[in-house]
Design goal:
The chain has 323 residues and is of the alpha/beta class. The chain has 12 helices and 12 strands. The chain binds NADP nicotinamide-adenine-dinucleotide phosphate and 2-keto-D-gluconic acid.
């Protein structure tokens, strides 16, 4: 008998095929009435496979009394109550490291797209303005400039390495803890870092601890010449304040991959040519999504075959057997 697994959110055909090989899969996307579905199946479900975006709603988790493991597709797991799961002995896993490079590339692509006004100038050509008015206005270079990274973890560090190596950037960072031996300049105070840099890239986890970490004071400190890039979670920036800072030109420009209420994006941003907007695609390459999918499945299959997992979240590490 295959163990029963609840699949929440969209995933790739490769992941579905691998899950169906090992599990009896219940597809959340096909559920019309959750109440009757859980009445009928809640007790037999022992595993959940979900995305970073969908997570697992507490009201569903509490109706799965025999749940053993929640495998998240994504490194961020702010949509899963990992502490609550750990208290029930449920292991939560995620997909760290395999996405570092592509998410870093997205952050840098956004920084370049904004500072070089790539989207504005593309529209300039398409609208025939090049032939009508000649060259587009000059833009600005990130070469040798200082970039402040909010969250120097796995992805933040990758962004820092790439910006130093390819663009000769100086790196400053803010996190709760200074990193031993880091060559970069640490700021315990985010406002002080925002005052000192021209560009700021946000790449912390989401959740309560970072909610509205980038507030009006931070954006005003970055200022009218500053550019803010967010590839973390929409919740990390005060979005209402971000929109007014951009509309009132108190903040120079922004590149945003993530939003507070995805897929809703504040319409006031649509008219601004100093803003580049992406639909949460930081890790969305074929190669990286495949690696993330493989790790999502590996955690589940290993748990039931060997009693081990590859990548538990920190809150559940004490419950998990790893290599
Ligand atoms: P990580 O290795 O855990 O790094 C997180 C960093 O944030 C650490 O430097 C941590 O340092 C810092 N941090 C945590 N809480 C903080 C707080 N309250 N204030 C200031 N700094 C704080 O995580 P990662 O693998 O780099 O991933 C980071 C996040 O990126 C994910 O959780 C996810 O939300 C987001 N992400 C987005 C995409 C996308 O598609 N846009 C893709 C992947 C990941 P301290 O503990 O010292 O504070
Ligand atoms: C995914 C992400 O797009 O890893 C993360 O934290 O935000 C992205 O890589 C997301 O988890 C898929 O829902």
């Amino acid at each position: 008998m295959k163990p029963d697994l609840l699949l929440i959110g969209g995933t790739t055909p490769r992941v579905i095929a691998a899950l169906e090989d090992a599990f009896s899969v219940h597809r959340g996307n096909d559920v019309e009435d959750w109440n009757s579905f859980l009445d009928e199946n809640g007790e037999k479900i022992v595993a959940v496979s979900t995305t970073g975006h969908d997570g697992l709603k507490p009201e569903i988790m509490e109706r799965l009394p025999n749940l053993k493991i929640i495998s998240g597709f994504g490194v961020g797991y702010d949509a899963i109550d990992a502490n609550g799961a750990a208290q029930r002995g449920i292991i939560v896993t995620h997909t760290p490291n395999v996405l570092n490079k592509d998410v870093a590339n997205t952050a840098i692509a956004l920084l370049l797209a904004v500072t070089r006004r790539i989207v504005r100038d593309d529209a300039y050509v398409r609208a025939g303005k090049w032939t009508g008015f000649g060259s587009a206005p000059l833009t600005e270079s990130i070469e040798g400039k200082t970039v402040g990274i909010v969250g120097l973890g796995r992805i933040g560090e990758t962004i820092a390495e790439k910006l130093s190596a390819a663009f000769d950037c100086q790196i400053a960072y803010h996190a709760r803890n200074e990193r031993d031996g880091s060559p970069y300049t640490y700021y315990a105070d985010l406002v002080e870092m925002a005052k000192a840099v021209k560009y700021m890239i946000v790449i912390t986890p989401g959740g309560a601890a970072t909610r509205k970490l980038v507030n009006r004071e931070v954006m005003d400190a970055l200022g009218p010449e500053g550019t803010l890039v967010n590839v973390a979670r929409g919740s990390v920036i005060d979005e209402t304040e971000l929109v007014s800072a951009l509309v009132e030109a108190r903040l120079g420009a922004a590149g945003l991959d993530v939003f507070e209420n995805e897929p809703q994006v504040p319409e006031a941003l649509f008219a601004l040519d100093n803003v580049v907007l992406l639909p949460h695609v930081g890790s969305a390459t074929v190669e990286t999504r495949q690696a993330m999918g493989d790790l999502t499945v590996e955690n589940l299959v290993r748990y039931f075959d060997e009693g081990k997992v590859t990548s538990p979240v920190p809150e559940c590490r004490h419950l998990a057997v790893t290599d």
